[in-house]
Each structure stands twice: as C-alpha cells, then as structure tokens.
Amino acid sequence: MFIREIPIKFAQKRSFRGLIFFTFLEIILFSTIIIYPSFSLYFVLPFLFIFFISAILFDFTYGIVFLLISIFFGKIELIQTPPLFYIDIILTFLILLIFLSRAYLNQYSVSFSVPLIFLLLSLFLLYCGITLQRSKSFVWGILSLRYLFSGLLVLVFIDNVIIGKNQIQKLFNFIIIWGLLLSIQIFVVSSREGNLQTDEFHKGLYLNWGRSNYLASFLILIIPMAYSLSFSKMQSYKKRIYYWIAFLMMMGALILTGSRGGFLAIVFPLLLLTKKFLRTKKVFFYFTVIIIPFIAVYFKEAFLYVFTGLVHIDKQITVLTRVINWINSWKIFLEHPLVGVGYGNLGYYIKNIFEKNTSAHNIVLSLLGETGIIGFIIFSCLFYQIIKIQLNNCKSLQGEEDHLMAWGVFAGTIGVLLHSLVEPSIWGYQMQILLWTVFGIAIKQFTLIERNYTFKTMLK
Q: Distances in Å between the alpha carbon of 72 and those of 27, 57, 90, 156?
C-alpha cells in the first residue's frame, strides 16, 4: 500500500510546483504585453499563444488558470470601444477549444454533470433577457447579462474538461494562489498610499479592474478555502504552514480594503470552520491567533478604520446611502412586482441624492427590483441546488483533503452571500468568473461522489 502511495504523492508535489511555475511565467508574459505593447505584437503574443495552446493540451485545467490570471490585467487599453478585457479573449479561446476538440473526436455535444443547474442558470439568463424589453437601458442590460453568461461558459468548460480528483485539487490550490497574488497587489498599492504603517488610513484602494469593496468580495470567497486546508492532519508540515501564511496574508489584505461589510461577512464562515474542525477548548485560542494580525503594526490604521466604522455605524454616510437604496429598491419592486424593471437597470430608477447611478446593495432587493418575483424564484431555486450540492459534498466526501475542500467551498459561498446583502459585488464580471469556477469545483466533486456510488452499486 505504501509503495503505491509514493508515486501519487510525488506527482501531487510536482503538480503543485508546476502550477506555481506556470502561474508566474504567465504573469511575466501578460506584464510584458502591457508594458511593451509594440514589442509584444511581434514576439510575446505569438509566444503566449503557443504557450497557451500547449499548456491547455497538456492539461485543460490550465485554461482556467490562464483565465483567472488574465483578470489581474483588466481592460485591453488598445481597444476602447467596445471595452474589452483580457478575460474576453481567453474565454473565447477556451470555448472554441472545447468545440474543436469535440469535433476532432466526432463528439458534437457538450455534457452536463448536473443538468438541473445548467437548466436553471440558462432559464434565468433567458428570463433576464426578456425583462430587458421594458428596461431604460437595453445596452447596459446586455452588458450586465454578458457577465452572467460568461459565468455559464466557465461552468460549461470546467464541467467538460475536469475529469479527475487531481485536477479538482489543482484548481482549488490555484485559486488560493490567485488569492495570494491579489493580496500582494493590495499590499503594494496600500504601501504606496501610506496605509500600511503610521499614516492615517483612507479608504479608496483601487486596482485597474476593481475597488475596495469589490476586491474584498474575492478574498471573502477564497479565505475560507485556504483556512479549511490549514486543518489538514495528513498534509506535510510545510504545506500546512503555506496554507496558514496564505490565510493570514489574505486576512490582512481584507482589512486593508477597509470593507466593513467584508469584515462582518467573513466572521461567520471562519467561526463555522473553526467550530467544525476544532475541539471547543481550542476555539478561543485559534481565534486569538487570527485576531493578532489585525492589531499588528502593519494593519493598525486599517483595522482601526474598520473597527471605528462598525462601532459608529449609525454615523456612517455609506450606511445612510444603503438604507436609502434599500427603501427605494423595495418601492420599485412594489411598483413592478411581477417582472421588475429589467436586469441591470435598477440604478436608473433609484433616486439617491448621494449617488447618481447606484444599485440596491442587496442581492434580494436587486433581484426583486430588476427581475420581479419570477426572476427571484428562478435564482433562488438555482442557488438552493448549488448549496444542496455543496452540503452533500461536505457530508459524503471521505478523503481528508476532499472533505476539507468541500467545507472550504461551502463556507466561502456563505461568506459571499452574506457580503452580497450589503454589496453588489456578486454581479461583477470578474466575480462571476471566479464564483462559477468555485461552483464548478463543487459540481465536479458531486459528480465523483455519484460515480463512486454507481461503481460500488455495480460491484454488489
């Protein structure tokens, strides 16, 4: 038994190192394209294309790696109208690659592991498209639907190219690496603004593809994933240290975003995981360890900003604007209860003296206002099925790493849903890409459970 485990562990170790090497090589290539666009046109772009195709053919999982890394580079500056992101190019290649590979194998259809999920998501997309007939801005509604449609494409890609447990683990680990890279970016930007040490902290963190609260939503999804694997007893000592470092770095980055809603949203998922995998006597000790980075010198000003805002929450202007948005969104829903005002168009109806074009800042009110009761019911059924699958994974997966990953995905999803009660981040383009990637992991884990159950039934 031990002899059989040696090559498996070696393959996993080499796969993890290869994933890190591939990630940083891709960052270098993308960075060269942005810094030296004319040089890239003749040398880097062809090399990147060859590298992309060869990596994909070696392991289709690297297609998602390419896609997620491209998020960091935002829009393509050479193309202004219509605005195009690097995500658009990579995602188009991935979908084309699926159909070309299927055509090569004379298989002209795509498969769906859980057809009900795809049916509900497609139905919600179709229904949202119908609601645009009565919208004030049809173009903005289409752009908003494009983000959700991209999430569907990502889910289709993952469902058709990931076939084994090792690929699921590789993708899960890369998402944690991606969260680390985002944290590093946040640290760098914050240090330039003087927010890491003694200067007065001011909120307004900005990357070329997102701002403070939006960036916080990604960390809320990924932090529980790293935190869950830190409880592993079968991983090597170095691996567990790595997960703890990743967890603490992302927690620090979350504080540096200054997102009070993000801070509140992450508390419950971490408590859930701590209670699940630690004895009650150790809970207080571990949460003391977690709190230490918050009060460390480097994060002092940011933590005080978040803490003060929570203590004096009734005096915060952002809280007032959200309350106004919630009240107005509810009124708009009462005026258009059945089908809403059109997907992505609620901001044109909300009247707020503090913000000209805003959103509901609440996923429930956003769905009700834009898609009405019908859209809300369809979307609720969709998320019910996703949560149901995740809970089934938490209960049924037996291997330690698979079990911890299932709980990390579930806790991250809960965190994002809690955050979406005060922020509209869940509807963002980049967030849809990452969110449905994580949901794809859950679906593939569920597929493996069903496959193992079918196999055991056949043996009886």
A: 9, 24, 13, 23
C-alpha–C-alpha distance, residues 224 and 263, integer Å = 13
Alpha-carbon gap, residue 248 to 291, rounded angstroms: 10
Residue 288 burial (CB < 10 Å; 0-12/13-18/19+)? exposed
Rounded Cα distance, 419 and 373, in Å: 22
By C-alpha distance, which of 380, 408, 406, 412 is closest to 393?
A: 406
Contacts of 52 by beta carbon, 8 Å cutoff, 6+ apart: 66, 90, 93
Band the pLDDT of 306: cuts 50, 70, 90. low
Q: What is the pLDDT of residues 57-77, one digit of tens each?
A: 667 787 888 889 889 888 876
How many residues would you count in the chain?
Answer: 460
Quote the pLDDT of residue 427.
Answer: 92
Residue 350: both structure tokens together: 């909300």
Looking at residue 453, its pLDDT comes to 47
CA distance linking residue 118 with residue 386, whole number of Å: 11
The CA distances from residue 247 to 251, 252, 254, 296, in Å, are: 6, 9, 11, 15
Higher pLDDT, 25 or 169: 169
This prediction has a pTM of 0.83
In this prediction, residue 139 carries a pLDDT of: 83
Crossing angle of helices 212-229 and 260-277, in 10° steps, is 10
Per-residue confidence at 380, pLDDT binned at 50, 70, 90? very high
Residue 348 CA to residue 355 CA, distance in Å, equals 11
Residue type, 219: L
pLDDT tops 90 at residue 219: yes
In 3D space, the residue among 369, 380, 386, 387 whose CA is nearest the CA of residue 424 turns out to be 369
* pLDDT per residue as tens digits for the range 329-352: 899 999 999 999 999 888 888 865
Tell me how crowded residue 19 is: count the other CB atoms within 10 A of its CB.
18
Contact status, residue 151 vs residue 432, Cβ threshold 8 Å: yes
